[in-house]
Write a structure and sequence with these properties.
The chain is an alpha+beta fold and 125 residues long. The protein has one domain: Class I glutamine amidotransferase (GATase) domain (Rossmann fold, 3-Layer(aba) Sandwich). It contains 4 helices and 7 strands, in the order αβαβαβββββα.
Length: 125
């Protein structure tokens, strides 16, 4: 949704649009995502790769204005994007709320909460 809001578009069905992509649909962290070295997501998690779940069948096709790919899976499918600016704008193609027991995903939530608190505090002044 974040990418579409920024003017990008999506592959409607990655299993149709990416040849040889296995039909992996699971809430378990079985998909490996490589994070871009200069990405905010990599700085937040401190990891080069993340194990994520696979529930969605859509993915970013064309990035919206100001967007950058932050991570791809081993098949080249975009799994994470981010947009530069003051606001916390990171989009992931997995459900980190189902992976709360993994440190990297807790760090992502902590960064989101910190950003939300900053916005709240700015609104108070």
């Amino acid at each position: 949704m974040l990418n579409v809001f920024q003017g990008g578009d999506l592959y409607q069905d990655i299993y149709r649009d990416f040849e040889g992509l296995p039909r992996l649909r699971t809430p378990l962290p079985l998909k490996r995502v490589s994070l871009e070295p200069d990405s905010q997501l990599r700085r937040i998690t401190g990891d080069e790769t993340l194990l994520v779940n696979a529930i969605h069948h859509q993915s970013v096709r064309r990035l919206g204005e100001g967007g950058a790919v932050a991570g791809r899976d081993e098949y080249g499918v975009v799994q994470a994007i981010e947009f530069a600016g003051k606001a916390f704008r990171i989009g992931v193609q997995w459900h980190p709320e189902l992976l709360f027991y993994r440190r990297a995903h807790r760090k992502l939530f902590a960064a989101f909460v910190t950003a939300a608190r900053r916005i709240r505090d700015c609104d108070r002044t």
